[in-house]
Amino acid sequence: MAFTVAVATLLAILPGSAAAAIATGGAPTAAGGPPAPPSATGAPSPGAPSAGVLSLASAKTTPRVSFYYGVRSPSLRFEIESTQAKNDLRVDVIDETGEAVRSFYRNDVEPHSTVGIRWDGVTATKRPAPNGRYSFRVVSQGTSRIARRASTSSESLGLSFDFYGYAFPILGKHDYGNSGARFGASRSGHTHQGQDVMAVCGLPLVAARGGRVQYSTYDGAAGNYIVIDGKGTPYDTAYMHLAEPSPLKEGDLVRTGQPIGIVGDTGDATACHLHFELWAAPGWYEGGSPIDPLAYLKAWDAYS
Ligand SMILES: [Zn+2]
Hints:
Bound molecules: zinc ion
CATH superfamily of the largest domain: Glucose Permease (Domain IIA)
Radius of gyration: 22 Å
Number of strands: 19
């Protein structure tokens, strides 16, 4: 309870966007925009690829948790040691089974030059990668020889990271309310088309899935609300009763995990909460239909 009070106090003295920026480590709030583009794939060395005996002089992966179409993409920076002056390298993103889901090629890499690779979470078959733990792996193109320090795994070198398709939309303490909060609960004249997630007013909200802002406006029932057409998915997500209008405008691109507003009780709401909707293709009031989002929310909650 002390934590809740402290957060509420902090939020009370900060504008919503500043509080959100703190809670998300400085993620952008107002302006939308697509994620930074991924590194070029490159191509294998023409002719016979060549590399010396490789080891990693340094290597670092950031961030350790990231999301598809997210605020920050998984990135590797490394330098090699080698017995050769020029080395034809391949950098793989590998899943937990060791299978490469995406590869990048860098030719004629010199020892101690810094190489940076940024992955956009898209597999070689052009699909968003499934949830899981991944690692970067640096190998020579000609053989499957792996650059590593003696007897260290990529995990102990710090090259692993967790990757998810969705972020939990509330940054802070919350609960799923009573039966009236559930999808399908009766309301006067209709049934409840989303899940209410109870949380104190002022807590930052983030996009569960980035994409394009389809609506960002006010309605007498929904209050301030925002609808996002999820990138790479058949789903739209809707967030209602925001305390203030979202800083995002219709047409903006928003990233997964990016702040989109703060919890409120505007419109037809008797308590501070997020009303969250998940709609199947073709989308929110575009001929799609709402889905019970509770199991999804709980799954995202478990790793967020
Ligand atoms: Zn509701």
